[in-house]
Structure formats: C-alpha cells, structure tokens
Amino acid sequence: MPLPEKALIAQIRWMTQTTVRGRGRILVGIGDDCAVLGLPPEHEILVTTDFTLEGIHFRRDWHPAESVGHRCLARGLSDIAAMGGEPVAAFLSLALPHDLPQSWVGRFTRGLISLAEKHGVTLAGGDTAESPNGILADIVVVGSVPKGKAILRSGARPGDRIYVSGELGGSAAALLQMQTQDTQRHRKRSHSGGAKELARVTTGVSPRAYSRHFYPEPRLELGRILREKELATAMIDTSDGLSTDLAHICQESHVGAELNSVLIPLARVGKPARAVNLDLALNGGEDYELLFTVPPSKRIPSKIAGVALSHIGDITRSRRIFVTDPQGVSYKLHPKGWEHFRR
Ligand SMILES: [Mg+2]
Predict the structure, then answer these.
(1) String of b and e for 199-229 (b: at least 16 CB within 10 Å)?
(2) How far is the centre of ligand 1, averaged over its atoms, from the C-alpha of 204 (Å)?
(3) Residue 321 has what DSSP assignment?
(4) Cβ atoms < 10 Å from Cβ of 335
(5) N or C terminus of the chain: which is more exposed, having fewer CB within 10 Å?
(6) What does the pLDDT look like over 248-279, one tens digit per residue?
C-alpha cells in the first residue's frame, strides 16, 4: 500500500533535498503553500505540462517503475529543450491506487529524481491523491530563456534546411516488440492453455537494448547551444513522431517540406542491433530528439554536445510535405505519428 499523503510528501521531500539543489533559483521548495522561484534577470518563463497515465503511456508489466519516473520528467524536459530553454523546477501530481506497493512509488520517484539531478532541476512541489483506477502522474516543468530568444515552431522559412538529432524510431521499436510478444503470449495461452508453455515465451524487452524508449535523454544542451548561437529558426521535439512533428512546424510556419528518405537516421535497436524500418522512423513517437530548421547562411557541425545531427531535407513554399525515396520517387507524407502506434 502506498504511504499516506503526508508520509509520501515527506519521503519525496527528503529524496529531493538529499539529491538536488537546483541552481539557486528555488527560493522556497516543498513545504510551503507555493514554491518561490527566482529567475535570472531578463529571462522569460517557460511552462509545460504532461500527463503520464497507466495503460496509455506505460504499462506496469512492460515498464520498470524507474523508467516510468524517468520518462515522466523526460517529456517535460524535452519540451524545455525544444524551446532552447533551461529547466528550473518540476512539480509532480500523483494519483495512486490504494493497492499499489510502496516500493513501486519509491522506484518511480528515484527514476524521476535521478534525471532531475542530472539536469540540475529541483522537484519543488506537487500533490498526491488516491486514484480509483490506475496510476496517474502529471508533471509541470518550469524553465527559463532569455527574453525573446525562445525558439518557436513558427520560424521556419522556405529554403531552410531541416535537421534532426540522434536517431529515430528506436522508442516505437521497443513498443512494437512488446506488443508482438503480448500477441504471441495470448496466442500460446489460447492454444495450449498451459502455464508452462506460457513461461517459454520471452517476456518484456531489455531496457538496455532499447534505452531510447525506457530512458530517453532530453537534448537540453543541444537546444541551449542552438539558441545561444542562433542557429535554428524553428524547433520542436519529436514526441509524436517525425511526420506529425514536422507537420506542426510546417503548419505554424505556413510552409511545406521535402525529406530525403535515405538521409533519415534510422535507430539501431535490440541485440544484435538492427536498424528500424523507415515507417517507424517516420511515424514512431517518443524519441525526444530535436527537429529544427536552419537558414541557408548557417553551418551546422556533424555533432553538437556529442549528439549527431542529420540534414534530412528542406523547407519549401508549397505547404505540403513530401518524402523522396532512393529511386527518386516523391510521395506525400501524412502525419500519422504516435497515435497510430499506441493501438
Ligand atoms: Mg514538445
């Protein structure tokens, strides 16, 4: 059973105090009615909020609790990265079923706090309640960016080059793998009905072989450098999938795009590692890479902050998004990201 609210908050407070202290911007953290945050002079506030729901964003039989905590915060940090901002504080609201083991909550919190610690973010408040059904976590991340310098989705112009960091499709590949195993298990169950048969089907996938899914690394340093050097005209993080996220940039910027399929960095996953197929790279979500546009006058190195960058296409005037295949044939790319894989 999870700890009662007071004890849970005390435990989280203790965990945050022993690990994270932020960058001196948390004037008052957990323990008062509100947190008090100090911002650097001439900065603006960034705020993002994300739900993490059991059965929608994770499954307890698929995801270790540490991974759920990590991913919960990573989503918010990735949004801050996509603006070129720096994270300051996180706020966590948790609704937990009464029969959830306390060890699950402890591991969830540890996963979340170790990512927070890595990026100098303080867990500065939150709320807890009992959930009638399943685990619900809502995270708010507050960040800051110098006045007027946030990198928006609306700044792309025809002729800009389109870049993406890291590799795509790795996260969706893990999901697909787990779904496939589930189907196999159900088939075995209905055919043999035996628990022994069932045990022979492998369960779960290795978080190490699919780390991009279980422990995604928000590209904060890359986002900050792109902003500081004024290299990007528009930016978004790939949370829904390239086809959907690029469509967001195009819509907000009133432009179109042309991608070259051979330039899209396909994730290598599993053991032995194999490249994912193009469909996963185009439409799989939750890679939390940065997708950004660069004016023709700016040069982009092959790596920034240790993260590989790929030039995958160009922004066009046409308002439509096309992909050119290796034979030189162009086809229209429809945004069918994340939702398509979740089912
Ligand atoms: Mg985002």
Answers:
(1) eeeeeebebebbbbbbbbbbbbbbbbbbbee
(2) 28
(3) E
(4) 21
(5) C
(6) 999 999 999 999 999 999 999 988 889 999 99
